[in-house]
Design a protein that fits this description.
With 154 residues, the protein is an alpha/beta fold. It has a single domain, classed as Rossmann fold (3-Layer(aba) Sandwich). The protein is built from three helices and eight strands, in the order E-H-E-H-E-E-E-E-H-E-E. The longest helix has 16 residues. It is globular. The two termini are 13 Å apart.
Length: 154
């Protein structure tokens, strides 16, 4: 059953949060598509994932290669091309219509200090919960991640 987790970033950058969440997804046996809106930012994330986490390697690649379908973690701008069970949305990327309901997890990482990003996340929350998809809102305002609210399907 789908679960969409909204991560309100106020202290950690998206790259750091991704480097924390992605190993957990791989540990669950999921492939992950990381969708962004800017190829340069995804290339930056690609470089960070080669360095983090320090205690492990995250097998991944940038979209557009011959091995896209085989990547455990694929970073790109387009549709899921690696049969992913999980989707991470960064920099304002959004799920395609009906996509979230077909996945195990969707993480929405958004900059809580950016009013446009905050409003977009609110709109996405309304759309996701209107579809009857389980959603949780997480905040790091206290210095550690805490779930602030949850909307379960009815």
């Amino acid at each position: 059953m789908a679960l969409v987790l909204f991560y309100h970033l106020t202290r950690s950058p998206a790259e750091e949060t991704a480097a924390t969440l992605l190993p957990r997804a791989l540990g669950a046996g999921w492939r992950v598509m990381v969708r962004g809106t800017d190829l340069a930012r995804l290339a930056h994330l690609d470089q960070r994932l080669w360095l983090e986490p320090e205690d492990g390697f995250l097998p991944h690649g940038l979209e557009g290669g011959a091995q896209d379908a085989d990547q455990p973690i694929l970073l790109g701008l387009g549709p899921i091309a690696n049969q992913a069970q999980a989707l991470m949305l960064v920099d304002g990327a959004v799920p395609q219509p009906g996509e979230a309901a077909r996945l195990e997890r969707v993480w929405v990482l958004f900059d809580g200090l950016d009013e446009t990003a905050l409003n977009a996340a609110r709109g996405l929350w309304k759309a996701v919960t209107a579809e009857g998809i389980h959603a949780q809102y997480w905040s790091e305002e206290t210095g550690r991640w805490q779930m602030k609210t949850e909307k379960k399907p009815t």
